[in-house]
Design a protein that fits this description.
474 residues, alpha+beta, Porin, 2 domains, 14-stranded antiparallel barrel
Length: 474
């Protein structure tokens, strides 16, 4: 057979032709994809248009024209985060791309980031846009002005609700557990008195073992809440949050857990020139508990919040809080401080929340004149998901983990009068479903699970709460 020899120059030409044909084919395929996507958008199917462009993003990402149209379709389909990412890629390559900046203003307004949208409008105006673009800019400015005007009007939100629920372990006891109310040394004396006949074997009940038993119960809850917003000027406002709540258990064994709360929390909030927001909020809470609703707790607190946007549309909030807690039983009094951070990130079909907190409680008093365990160090991490279903439904899920470490050994009935370090690890999970029937009625169902593992057996527990409730929104 005769061999075929291809000279280097001819080989180069053949490769160039092949590569050119390949690129031309890809270019035609992209043009077809773009044309089909625009047709689908004109027909009202923004999701399909966005999906078709997103399918070729790996191959075309970084090309200003493609990224621009990808941002347009993503915005029309409701994926604001992806739209901003694509539009940012356009502006990195072509800072004077007026169309990309215009779409970016629309995306920022969807996130209600008005200050960032105004900055983008200023950059647009510096590009001397044509009359059509100037008309769109005027509409954006009117939207911003309207929203600011709404913010400057007082807002009042009042709701009342009732809920019925089931609690598997209101007392948070581990299980049926018997504990001797007397320390070993005193128990030996009592046994000697019984043996000598000075005491009857079946004497006073307080000398017998005490049984702590978890007992499930149904409960009902009534709640009223008011939230007010009172603007001072364009960037600052007064806030007011007031809550009244009462909860009653149906089983006698859980009456000691019955609770009534009143809380008042005014606040001052200000938006800084860079779009960051800080809030200062004092609060006072009064609680009554037990079957007779005796005074239980008075709490005074002061908290500060500092919130700002990170990335394209995530919200980061720092929290600092101080509390003074005065109980009816002075041995339980303590002061507390806490530092926390929370990050909220909206994704395509879900909002994700991450949080972390560290805190400390300082028991008041000394020795036997303070709560068992003394001071407390604790920390907590958690995450949550908010999944909207249409415009009226929301599924919300949260999981969290906490550790609580008391600084002094516990030496009482709960530790069987043996000095023991009290440390707790707590897992929590909550799932709820909210359905707004109309502008006035809101239905909410939820389930909570808690598992507590402690170094002292008495504090081990599992608890399940389920409830269904309805609220009327005025």
């Amino acid at each position: 057979m005769r061999s075929i020899t291809v000279r280097p120059f001819r080989l180069y030409c053949l490769l160039s032709i092949a590569l050119g044909l390949l690129l031309t084919t890809q270019a035609h395929a992209y043009e077809d994809t773009l044309q089909n996507a625009r047709q689908m958008l004109e027909q009202g199917d923004a999701n399909a248009a966005y999906a078709s462009m997103k399918a070729v993003e790996v191959d075309r990402s970084g090309e200003p024209e493609f990224d621009y149209w990808l941002g347009v379709f993503a915005l029309r389909a409701g994926d604001v985060s992806h739209a901003l990412i694509a539009l940012d890629r356009v502006l990195i390559a072509a800072p004077e791309h007026a169309g990309a900046r215009m779409e970016r203003v629309a995306a920022l307004l969807q996130l209600d980031q008005r200050r960032a949208a105004e900055e983008e409008i200023e950059r647009l105006e510096a590009l001397s846009p044509p009359p059509e673009a100037q008309a769109a800019i005027r509409r954006f400015k009117e939207v911003i002005k309207q929203r600011r005007g709404e913010d400057n009007d007082p807002q009042h939100n009042l709701s009342v609700g009732v809920a019925l629920g089931y609690d598997s372990n209101p007392q948070r006891y581990s299980r049926d557990i018997e504990l001797d109310p007397l320390p070993p040394s005193l128990r030996d004396v009592v046994d000697q008195l019984i043996d000598s006949g000075a005491l009857e074997p079946d004497g006073p009940n307080q000398l017998d073992d005490i049984t702590f038993a978890s007992r499930s119960s149904l409960y009902h809850r009534l709640q009223a809440n008011y939230r007010g917003r009172y603007p001072i000027d364009e960037r600052s406002r007064w806030l007011l949050d007031a809550t009244a709540q009462t909860q009653r258990y149906t089983q006698d064994s859980a009456e000691e857990i019955d609770l009534t709360l009143l809380q008042l929390a005014p606040a001052y909030q200000r938006e800084l020139s860079n779009g960051h927001t800080w809030t200062l909020q004092p609060n006072v809470l009064q609680g009554w508990g037990g079957a007779n609703q005796d005074p239980l707790l008075t709490r005074w607190g002061l908290s500060g919040h500092y919130a700002y946007t990170v990335g394209t549309d995530s919200q980061l909030t720092w929290q600092l809080r101080a509390q003074r807690n005065d109980f009816d039983n002075a041995l339980s009094d303590y002061d507390a401080g806490r530092l926390g951070v929370e990050l909220t990130t909206p994704l395509t079909h879900v909002n994700v929340r991450w949080q972390a907190r560290v805190g400390k409680e300082w028991a008041r008093g000394t020795g036997n004149q303070q709560r068992a365990g003394g001071d407390l160090n604790h920390w907590q991490v958690g995450m949550g998901l908010d999944v909207p279903i249409g415009n009226r439904q929301l599924i919300r899920g949260d999981v969290g983990y906490r550790e609580r470490n008391y600084q002094d050994d516990v030496n009482n009935i709960t530790s069987r009068y043996q000095p023991t370090a009290r440390e707790e690890q707590i897992w929590e999970a909550r799932l709820s479903w909210l359905y707004q029937l109309n502008r006035h009625w809101l239905v909410e169902t939820s389930a909570n699970y808690e598992q507590r593992d402690a170094t002292i057996e008495f504090y081990d527990s599992t608890r399940l709460q389920t409830q269904v409730g309805v609220r009327y929104l005025f």
